[in-house]
Input
Amino acid sequence: MIETAYYSDIGGRPYNEDSVRIAERGGGTLLILCDGLGGHGGGDIASRTAVELVCDKWNGTADPEHLEKLLMEAHEKICSMQTPVCKMKSTAVAIALKDGEAAWAFAGDSRLYHFIDGVLVSQTRDHSASQVAVLLGEITQEQIRFHSDRSKIFRALGLESELSIETGTETLTPGRHAFLLCSDGFWEYVIEAEMASELRLARSPDEWIASMKKILSRRVPEDNDNNTAAAAWLEI
Output
């Protein structure tokens, strides 16, 4: 049994460029979250297009190559919809779970976190200038949140340059697994230690997300970004 939950909030912006969806097919579960890039126009269209295409064409498996193929199809579709005045783009992160297997694919700075028994064991690395600064030892991972180059994204659906989708797969070990997908408007204000501590107190994915939303709401400015998260729980 896989328990899931999600939300998306407009924040202090005029419209929501985040999109999120959960799909179930053939005994598998898919979660996908996309964040349209501001400043290019049509970010809401790009994120929604990607989410709908991936969910509609997903075959129910936990196969990273299949997820990569679907995100590339979404990228090509978004590119075909662009105009000279609307260069729509979107980040994307997706995970498929089935029969004790997990597969994921992503591009951009929307993140996937994996917790086992309430402890963070892995997270995706952003495709951003600030993540490169971490790799070069110029800043710490925690300092990404408000780094001056954090908005510089190197990979996204709709980028003019050739896109490379990052993928991963894992056979889940015995334990209580929790996965969290979130846009930068979420992880910017909720730190990893808080994600883990609230997870250990929560009785359901809905309760986990609700408790983290309370943390976020206490910290965001009036003009804060759209913020979106999706969670999946399962026990092996």
User: Anything to note?
Assistant: Residues 110 and 184 are 6 Å apart (CA to CA).
